[in-house]
Specification:
Elements: H1 2-21, H2 34-52, E1 66-76, E2 79-86, E3 92-99, E4 105-111
């Protein structure tokens, strides 16, 4: 029994030292991330509306700021491709919905014309 308590105390002591060794200033907080700041207000509005309606989960009546351009929707093999636009800034986004094996669906959204191309390693899958 005493040996078990000794091991437990040693483990807790080591974990506490590791936790204190991390420099918090090397990591971003949620408020410093642009995606978080842009979408926090929308998420808060959806949550408040759900509370007012007495719903804890489920669909909300709040309209999304994004809309699909109907003329851009087409099926390319096992992939549904569409253009999505934000209501305020009108920046087009490319939406790909891929239907993979065993009922798996992959949803990807990215800028239609990015300033710098992002790394895309999905061809290996």
């Amino acid at each position: 029994m005493k040996l078990t308590l000794l091991y437990l105390a040693a483990t807790v002591s080591l974990l506490a030292q590791v936790g204190l060794a991390v420099k918090q200033e090397d990591f971003k907080t949620s408020e410093q991330v642009a995606f978080y700041r842009r979408h926090r207000a929308f998420a808060d509005g959806v949550g408040k509306e759900s509370q007012l309606l007495g719903k804890s989960t489920g669909a909300s009546q709040t309209a999304s700021p994004y809309s699909v351009l109907q003329d851009s929707v087409h099926l390319d093999g096992h992939t549904l491709v569409a253009s999505v636009q934000h209501g305020a800034d009108k920046v087009p986004l490319k939406l790909n919905v891929s239907f993979l094996d065993k009922g798996i669906v992959r949803i990807r959204g990215q800028e239609a014309d990015p300033l710098k191309a992002r790394f895309d390693d999905t061809q290996k899958l």
